[in-house]
């Protein structure tokens, strides 16, 4: 068994939102399938860290979720900023069960264990949250991350954090999210959201004793990377 991760699949099999118009995204759905099938087995787990489907409503995700469900491995979904279909966990769990998509699970105020690690995380939020609304959302995400990390630590396995938004970008830092990671002794953090030329400002490497890694699909050439 192994754990892989990738973010920002931006699938649009059931809606008219093609990503092929962007540089580097040609045939991306086929490339995801080919790379994923080559690297991942049915016994493995893949954490998909946000911006999964362009569908606006949960009922419109069918083509995208069916595509993912049929790929090898167990999949764990985290919310991204474009996942407008995201609903309460109970509604999403029920919808997945009704459709028979048994390989997909939702990470939301919880954690999962796989291959000797505890998988935890949340969407995160902007590093430059200034408006009252942004600050409110940020603190809600901090609470969700705290809950997920504490549940992960209770397993006595290494907690590894997956976020959608980067906690560090260029010279900017999301202090509130970073404080959770630092205070909880997190050693590895994977994040997405950053695309194209913006990747030059993405922080990768060690800071505050934490290893950070960008996992946006286009940055990874649509090839899930192994976590453990």
Description:
Helix 3 (89-99) links the parallel strand 3 and strand 4. The chain has a 6-stranded mixed sheet, covered by helices on one side. It has a 5-stranded mixed sheet with strand order 4-3-2-1-13. A two-stranded antiparallel sheet has the order 8-9. The protein has one domain (3-226): 4-Layer Sandwich (Purple Acid Phosphatase, chain A, domain 2), CATH 3.60.21.10. It has helices spanning 28-39, 62-69, 89-99, 132-153, 175-183; strands spanning 3-6, 45-49, 74-78, 104-106, 112-114, 117-122, 158-163, 168-169, 172-173, 188-191, 205-207, 210-214, 225-226. The model has no long low-confidence stretch (mean pLDDT 97). The longest helix is centred in the middle third of the chain and has 22 residues, at 132-153. The chain contains 5 helices and 13 strands. By secondary structure, it is of the alpha/beta class.
List the helices and strands and how they pair.
Elements: E1 3-6, H1 28-39, E2 45-49, H2 62-69, E3 74-78, H3 89-99, E4 104-106, E5 112-114, E6 117-122, H4 132-153, E7 158-163, E8 168-169, E9 172-173, H5 175-183, E10 188-191, E11 205-207, E12 210-214, E13 225-226
Parallel strand pairs: 1-2, 2-3, 3-4, 6-7, 7-10, 10-12
Antiparallel strand pairs: 1-13, 5-6, 8-9, 11-12
Question: Descriptors for this entry?
Answer:
alpha/beta; Purple Acid Phosphatase, chain A, domain 2; 13 strands; globular; single chain; 228 residues; 22% strand; 27% helix
- Assign a percent range to the helix content: 25-40%
**How many structural units, i.e. domains?**
1
| Termini separation | 9 Å
User: Main sheet: which strands, in order across?
Assistant: 5-6-7-10-12-11
Low-confidence regions: none
CATH superfamily: Metallo-dependent phosphatases
CATH topology: Purple Acid Phosphatase, chain A, domain 2
Radius of gyration: 16 Å
């Amino acid at each position: 068994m192994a754990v892989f991760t990738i973010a920002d699949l931006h699938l649009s099999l059931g809606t008219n939102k093609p990503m092929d118009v962007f540089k580097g995204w040609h045939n991306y759905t086929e490339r995801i399938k080919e790379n994923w099938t080559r690297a991942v087995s049915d016994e493995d787990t893949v954490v998909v860290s946000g911006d999964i489907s362009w569908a606006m409503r949960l009922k419109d995700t069918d083509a995208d979720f069916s595509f993912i469900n049929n790929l090898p491995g167990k999949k764990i979904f985290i919310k991204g900023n474009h996942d407008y279909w995201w609903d309460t966990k109970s509604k999403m769990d029920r919808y997945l069960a009704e459709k028979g998509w048994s390989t997909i699970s939702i990470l939301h105020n919880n954690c999962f264990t796989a291959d000797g690690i505890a998988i935890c995380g949340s969407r995160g939020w902007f590093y430059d949250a200034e408006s009252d609304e942004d600050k409110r959302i940020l603190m809600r995400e901090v609470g969700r991350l705290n809950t997920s990390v504490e549940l992960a630590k209770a397993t006595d396995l290494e907690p590894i954090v997956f976020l959608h938004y980067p906690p560090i970008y260029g010279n900017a830092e999301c202090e509130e999210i970073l404080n959770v990671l630092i205070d909880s002794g997190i050693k590895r953090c994977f994040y997405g959201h950053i695309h194209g030329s913006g990747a030059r400002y993405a922080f990768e490497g060690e800071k505050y004793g934490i290893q950070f890694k960008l996992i946006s699909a286009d940055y990874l050439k649509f090839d899930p990377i192994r976590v453990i």
